[in-house]
């Protein structure tokens, strides 16, 4: 449950940062001097092609972000699995040592 809340908070935070950044830039793809900034001849020209180029760029970065998030999730899942195996190994060691202690007490 807390993971879902944390994820939702993270999404809201990222979305608000993107919105704030876009407010400062103006409308992307509008052309040079109109808030769209530079970024290539197509975007500098503005108009429909500039808007399309800006949209393609945004789509590309959203896709990259999704890929990075998926890689991060996979990494954390692998780390969790590794730690679970390590816990199992250490629990076996504990049991082995406890058995030795019981054997020593029994021999007394």
Distance between the termini: 52 Å
Helix/strand order, N-terminal first: HHH
Discrete helix count: 3
For the CA atoms, what is the radius of gyration?
A: 27 Å
The helical percent reads over 70%
Strand content: under 5%
Q: Main beta sheet: strand number and arrangement? A: none
What's the mean pLDDT score?
Answer: 79
Poorly predicted spans? none
SS content category: mainly alpha
Number of strands: 0
Broad shape = rod-shaped
Subunit structure: Homodimer; represents the active form and is present at a pH value below 6.5. Homotetramer; represents the inactive form and is present at a pH value above 7.0.
GO molecular function, one term: ATPase inhibitor activity
Biased composition (Gly residues): 28-41
InterPro entries: ATPase_inhibitor_mt (IPR007648)
Write the layout of secondary structure elements.
Layout: H1 2-25, H2 41-45, H3 47-107
Fold and architecture overview:
Homodimer; represents the active form and is present at a pH value below 6.5. Homotetramer; represents the inactive form and is present at a pH value above 7.0. By secondary structure, this protein is mainly α. The protein is 83% helix and 0% strand. It is built from 3 helices and no strands. The model has no long low-confidence stretch (mean pLDDT 79).
């Amino acid at each position: 449950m807390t993971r879902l809340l944390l994820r939702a908070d993270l999404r809201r935070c990222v979305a608000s940062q993107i919105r704030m950044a876009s407010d400062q830039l103006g409308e992307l793809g509008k052309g040079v001097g109109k808030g769209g900034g530079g970024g290539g001849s197509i975007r500098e020209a503005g108009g429909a092609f500039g808007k399309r180029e800006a949209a393609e760029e945004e789509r590309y970065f959203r896709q990259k972000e999704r890929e990075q998030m998926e890689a991060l999730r996979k990494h954390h899942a692998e780390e969790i699995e590794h730690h679970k195996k390590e816990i199992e190994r250490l629990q076996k060691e504990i049991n082995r040592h406890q058995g030795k202690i019981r054997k020593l007490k029994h021999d007394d």
